[in-house]
Design brief:
Elements: H1 4-8, H2 13-22, E1 35-36, E2 43-54, H3 64-72, E3 77-92, H4 94-103, E4 107-114, H5 117-120, E5 127-129, E6 131-132, E7 141-146, E8 150-152, E9 155-157, E10 162-166, E11 169-173, H6 178-200, H7 205-212
Parallel strand pairs: 2-3, 3-4, 4-5, 4-6
Antiparallel strand pairs: 1-5, 2-7, 2-10, 8-9, 10-11
Helix pairs in contact: 2-6, 6-7
Length: 215
């Protein structure tokens, strides 16, 4: 069987969200608050989860599980961090991105902030989050679990699920429907290309929709 990521690389978030809706998986899109923070505004890969919580003192071993996550991840993973939409500090930065980029990790998506945008802007590594701040995470937020199911904006994700994000936002693809989702999404892209050509040729939009059922 072909690598699902070969297909995902040629899709976009909206068409995947549409297909998941049609399959009855209607709660798979993260909130609009989570968006690309870097010039690289597209990410897709296999989910690797982490959950972080706010702390009010420096832990005995700061960054312990965060570093373990990066050392554990494999090529084609995307780090997905549930941090409760914490805006008090930056969970991510330049050096962590460099470590991930070197081992083939495809990006990070998180419900918290980043920093070091001066450096990230020049790297070929997508960082999606909810904002930026110079404040360090040490003593403010700390990873408490790796590889467990996380729920962000009502979307539950597990290790081995797939993720796609672009300018429109981020969609989680459950592993159990991944093959069907990718097959149908590929077909929908082909149909949308046909509709686009017909509209460019002057076919009325109502006629094109009646014919193809696509808008």
């Amino acid at each position: 069987m072909s690598n699902p990521l070969d297909t995902l690389d040629n899709l976009y978030a909206a068409v995947v969200a549409d297909v998941l809706d049609a399959l009855g998986c209607r709660q798979q899109t993260l909130s609009a608050e989570i968006a690309a923070l870097t010039p690289v505004r597209r990410v897709c890969g296999r989910v690797f989860t982490a959950r972080a919580e706010a702390v009010d003192e420096v832990p005995a071993e700061p960054y312990k599980l965060e570093l373990q996550a990066i050392d554990t991840m494999q090529a084609d993973d995307v780090l997905l961090v549930d941090a409760g939409h914490n805006r008090q500090c930056a969970f991510w930065g330049e050096l962590l991105s460099m470590a991930c980029l070197t081992k083939g990790v495809r990006g990070v998506v998180m419900s918290t902030c980043s920093r070091d945008l001066w450096a990230l802007n020049g790297m070929n590594f997508p960082v999606f989050g909810i904002g930026c701040t110079p404040a360090d995470s040490k003593g403010r937020i700390d990873v408490v679990a790796l590889g467990q199911a996380v729920t962000i904006d009502g979307v539950t994700a597990r290790n081995g699920d797939y993720l796609i994000g672009d300018e429109d936002g981020v969609v989680i693809i459950p592993q159990e429907v991944a093959d069907e989702t990718l097959k149908l999404a590929r077909e929908k892209v082909s149909s949308e290309n046909t509709v686009r050509d017909e509209l460019a040729a002057g076919v009325p939009v109502g006629e094109a929709f009646a014919k193809h059922g696509i808008l």
